[in-house]
């Protein structure tokens, strides 16, 4: 990466990647998301912060096409998610979105390399290209030596680095991360945040990250503060 460019400098004149307009969602009689609106630009990292149960994961699930909003509009570049069928939504998720979770969600029976390769396999990327890209990504997250290790043989920090490589393997337009450091000690957590900042700047990927405000301050350009399904304020940094 170009070290002259600080990962904290907000991208200038970057194209809008994600446009969320007045998204609402109910579970039964309960309104979990209430008219949520914001945009994300290429290379921009935005933190989503707020107390447990305020709707952060539900919002990520709607943006990632795992769940559907009841009203409002979610546009990922040219695609309006509310207009897609379930199959089209699943395809969009596989092709265009990368997801990172608190508990890594690696497949235990696949090696680190095979976990990174999997999203490319699902998209029928040719074997040779899968190998090149997979090894490049493992090198980028400093895990070349652990390519043949299984998740059970890796530390938490290493597992999350595999998960980051996997999330980037299919060159997504948007990364959704749900408490990516929530299961790591502070040193490993900071390393993961630095890595996410570097990679999203370098690859110009938009990233929405559920996190605690203190850690988000370091690497995010903006923070959205959520309470009871509403974005109550937006701040620079955290
Ligand atoms: N599948 C579901 N069915 C019913 N209620 C749900 C479901 N998923 C989440 N909820 C409720 O929606 C609210 C928001 O949950 P969530 O988005 O997981 O919050 P957060 O990630 O901010 O902790 C919570 O009250 C939760 O209990
Ligand atoms: Mg959550």
CATH superfamily heading = P-loop containing nucleotide triphosphate hydrolases
Q: Which band does the percent of strand residues land in?
A: 25-35%
Taking pLDDT < 50 over at least 5 consecutive residues as the criterion, the unreliable ranges are: 1-5
- Rg for CA atoms: 17 Å
N-to-C terminal Cα separation, in Å?
A: 25 Å
Most strands sheet: 6 strands, mixed
The CATH architecture name reads 3-Layer(aba) Sandwich
Class from helix and strand fractions? alpha/beta
Could you please say which CATH topology applies here? Rossmann fold
Counting DSSP H or I runs of 4 or more residues, the number of helices is: 7
Blueprint of the fold:
Blueprint: E1 16-27, E2 30-41, E3 45-49, H1 56-63, E4 71-76, E5 79-80, H2 86-96, E6 97-100, H3 112-122, H4 127-140, H5 156-168, E7 174-178, H6 186-203, E8 206-210, H7 213-219, E9 222-227, E10 230-236
Parallel strand pairs: 3-8, 3-9, 6-7, 7-8
Antiparallel strand pairs: 1-2, 1-4, 4-5, 9-10
Helix pairs in contact: 3-4, 3-5, 4-5, 5-6, 6-7
The structure holds adenosine-5'-diphosphate (ADP) and magnesium ion.
């Amino acid at each position: 990466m170009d070290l002259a460019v600080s990962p904290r400098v907000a991208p200038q004149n970057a194209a809008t990647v994600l446009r969320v307009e007045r998204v609402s969602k109910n579970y039964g009689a309960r309104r979990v998301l209430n008219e949520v609106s914001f945009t994300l630009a290429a290379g921009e990292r935005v933190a989503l912060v707020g107390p447990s149960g305020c709707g952060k994961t539900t919002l990520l699930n709607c943006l990632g096409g795992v769940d559907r909003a009841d009203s409002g509009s979610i546009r990922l570049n040219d695609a309006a998610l509310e207009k897609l069928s379930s199959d089209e939504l699943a395809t969009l998720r596989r092709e265009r979105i990368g997801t990172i979770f608190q508990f890594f969600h690696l497949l235990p029976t696949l090696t680190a390399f095979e976990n990174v390769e999997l999203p490319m396999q699902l998209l029928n990327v040719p074997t040779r290209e899968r190998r090149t890209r997979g090894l490049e990504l493992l090198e980028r997250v400093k895990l070349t030596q652990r390519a043949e290790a299984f998740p059970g043989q890796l530390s938490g920090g290493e597992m999350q680095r595999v998960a980051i490589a996997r999330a980037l393997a299919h060159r997504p337009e948007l990364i959704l991360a749900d408490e990516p450091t929530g299961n790591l000690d502070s040193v490993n957590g900071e390393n993961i945040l630095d890595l996410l900042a570097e990679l999203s700047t370098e690859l110009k990927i938009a990233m929405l990250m559920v996190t605690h405000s203190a850690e988000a301050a370091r690497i995010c350009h903006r923070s959205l503060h959520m309470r009871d399904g509403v974005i109550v304020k937006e701040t620079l940094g955290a």
